[in-house]
Amino acid sequence: MVLVVNRVLALLVVCLAVASCTSDATQTNPSITAASTIATVATTVGQTTTTVPPTSTAASSTSTPTSTPTVTTTRPSCDLAGFSLGAKRNDVIPPAIASLTSVRAGQHDCYERIVFDFKDDNIPEYEIAYGAPPFSGPSGIPIAVAGTRFIKVRFGTTYARYPGFGSYDGPDVVNPAGFNVINEVHLIEEFEAVVVWVIGIDAEHVFRVGTLTNPTRIYVDVARS
């Protein structure tokens, strides 16, 4: 850069010397011309040597961290009307023996359900309440049931497997797969028209009992909350 400017200034000096040797008739104003030439050369030199650094996109970019969205699980609003810890009873004796046909389980948003199906329209007597182990059948041998709390389901005027009356051919132990509250449903007694099941659950929960028709059935709902 300095070398270029020096050469330009040397050239200007030569031009000024030559200009001073010309005739007055052809010389206009050497000082004005020289000044104008110096200004032009200086401007040209400045324009030639001035560089503008490129704008760095990476430097000006602002990195915005990506946030992980929060997933909110909304639990259903449960109406637990009719649920309680107290015993539920039906003391009405049916006109004929009630024949148990199946035991099944189902899940709902607010509760888990055990259903006892019967062959005809007769609803047996029942008493359904919390009970404490040990549980045993007519033989007196203790029967283990999975769970920490237990709901004892006692049906009267009914049979399960009794020849000539019973229609139940399912297992003595029902293990509902994937349930959170109910661990096991266990048949522990069938004697003299009395059938007893025990529902083993994970903790003490309120429950309700009801009946339905087509087919005739009794259900036990154990609240999840």
Walk me through what this model shows:
By secondary structure, this protein is α+β, with helices and mostly antiparallel strands. The chain has a domain at 88-223: Sandwich (Immunoglobulin-like), CATH 2.60.40.3500. Helix content is 20%, strand content 33%. The protein contains three helices and 13 strands. The protein has helices at residues 2-21, 30-49, 57-60, and strands at residues 88-90, 98-107, 111-118, 125-131, 135-136, 142-143, 149-156, 158-159, 173-174, 182-190, 194-201, 207-212, 217-223. The strands form three sheets. Strands 1-4-7-11-10-9 form a six-stranded antiparallel β-sheet, with no helix packed on it. Strands 8-2-3-13-12 form a five-stranded mixed β-sheet, with no helix packed on it. A two-stranded antiparallel ribbon has the order 5-6. The longest helix is centred in the first third of the chain and has 20 residues, at 2-21. The chain starts with a helix and ends with a strand. Mean pLDDT is 78; it is low at 1-52 and 55-61.
